[in-house]
Amino acid sequence: MEYDFWHQRWEEDDIGFHQTDVNPLLESHWPGMSREPANVLVPLCGKSLDMMWLRRRGHRVQGVEMSPVAADAFFSEHDIEPFRAEAAWGSRLAADGLSVLVADFFELMRNDLDAVDAVYDRAALVALPPAMRLRYAHKLASLTASRTPIFAILFDYDDPGLIGPPFSVPEDEVAALFPEYHLSKLAEHEVLIRNVRVREYAIVLEPADAPDDMRVTT
Prior knowledge:
By secondary structure, the protein is an alpha/beta fold. It has helices spanning 3-11, 24-29, 50-56, 68-76, 130-143, 171-177, and strands at 39-43, 60-65, 83-87, 90-95, 98-102, 118-121, 150-156, 181-193, 196-207. A hairpin with a 2-residue loop joins β4 and β5 (98-102). The two termini are 33 Å apart.
């Protein structure tokens, strides 16, 4: 990951990647993902409005974001004054069931997080170049329990003129990164990224051996 690149983007407010609305795929398909309040982990969260949407549904949300600018902006734009606590890996901003860990995601350990019931990957995999994605999958596994479901929103495109981030992460690559999971594509639609039409899709990953009564309803 180009840490300086992302810090500079936030410091210069060059954040065209930030969505100003809740992602419609999340709104349409999350209800089948978690039928009761859960502790949801959002890696590389930025200041995503999706975190507030999840919180309003009763979930406790913990994001991980390397940029203190993004973390501060998330709370200030929602008129929330968070409690701040320093740690060896960075700092935690928390208030009313919302927390953002200002840290390098890859440096965190499981005991740095609250227990994780579900993962919402909105912009993590697509922000990482191919060489870092397996490391991300392994780190995510180390931070969560073996039966933690993952809800991901990804892009799939083959236009050579479009260079990420956001990167293309096709479904077969997701399957290779998470071989112990069963994958179900929930929906797909087209969106514009820098005037290029690409496929955005939502996918849920569950442990392959999960019993039927624990499966996500799609």
